[in-house]
Amino acid sequence: MAFTAALFAPTMVASLAPSLAHAHATLEQGQASINSYYKAVMRIPHGCDGQATLKVRITVPEGMVSAKPMPKPGWELETVKGDYENTYTLHGREITSGVKEIVWTGQLEDDHYDEFVFQARLADTLPVGETVYIPTVQECMKGEVAWIEIPAEGQDPHALAHPAPGLKIAAAEGGDGHGAGHDHGASHGDHGMEIIKVGDLEIDQPYARAAPPNAPVSAGYMVIRNTGAEGDRLVGGSVDFADHLEVHEMKMDGDVMKMRELSDGLEIPAGGEVVLKPGGFHIMFMKMKEQLKPGETRKVTLEFEKAGTVELELPVRDMKGGHGSHDHSGHSKSN
Length: 335
Fold this sequence. Notes:
It comes from Flavimaribacter sediminis. This protein is mainly β and 335 residues long. The protein has strands at residues 26-27, 31-33, 36-44, 53-59, 64-69, 76-90, 93-108, 114-122, 131-133, 136-140, 144-147, 166-170, 196-198, 201-209, 217-226, 232-238, 242-253, 256-261, 266-268, 273-276, 281-288, 297-304, 308-317, 332-333. The protein is built from no helices and 24 strands. Strands 13, 14, 15, 16, 17, 18, 19, 20, 21, 22, 23 and 24 form a twelve-stranded mixed beta sheet that branches. Strands 6-7-4-10-11 form a five-stranded antiparallel beta sheet, with no helix packed on it. The N and C termini lie far apart (50 Å).
């Protein structure tokens, strides 16, 4: 049976029909792994039968813990906190309560589109292979559109008039689907590692890629979250096992994967996070002086435009054969 289905009766419907029956409230990313931080981007495509949306109300389902909403310019933001049904462990500490509901109050005209964002940790108790539903309600001057219908077991969600946006739960990458395994990607990291804080920034799950003898480069990955009201920027840093470090981005350009140095640094948006991972943003260690061996820990100093400098300890991982394995030397580089 679909997770959280018991929370909402399937007979509940919106009190006003949407102006476009086929345009539902949806999530930008419809799948995510347990033991990861998920950025939920809720897309609101229209108002209530021609009326402007004045409130967007999102219910955070059980198992999505430590939820933090992103403020929106011109909108008031409030949260409703409460006790979880279960006790969760997050970064070595137990948590029993958190944000249960998020409400943005403002005005979104019927013929306009917007996105409402929050972040949450997906607990390893969530049902792998099933869908978690995130009930979302648009309140207007006269009535509302309530995207809260949960499909019955075996029912096609597209058959519902007002389906709740759904998130398919995947196993932790590199794990066994129950949170026991470790993943090679930056979105999961080492369980029990402390979050490093500098200014308004939080650095989570840092690690470095092992490098063979005489390798000219290697890479570092992590999650950087900005809890402040102003954006910041990763502009550089230093290491003792390489000549210098650079902030890079890898992305597809047609059929070619290209890498470029971010000469102006990497933006960390206010209230958001940036994931440094294989195949995306990352730190490059240039002109390596020493081999990085699996199981070692290496120190790296990072420099941020506003938060200043911070020293990290990066566990070294062997990524051969893993999903994060890639060879920088084989890609084009452009600036």
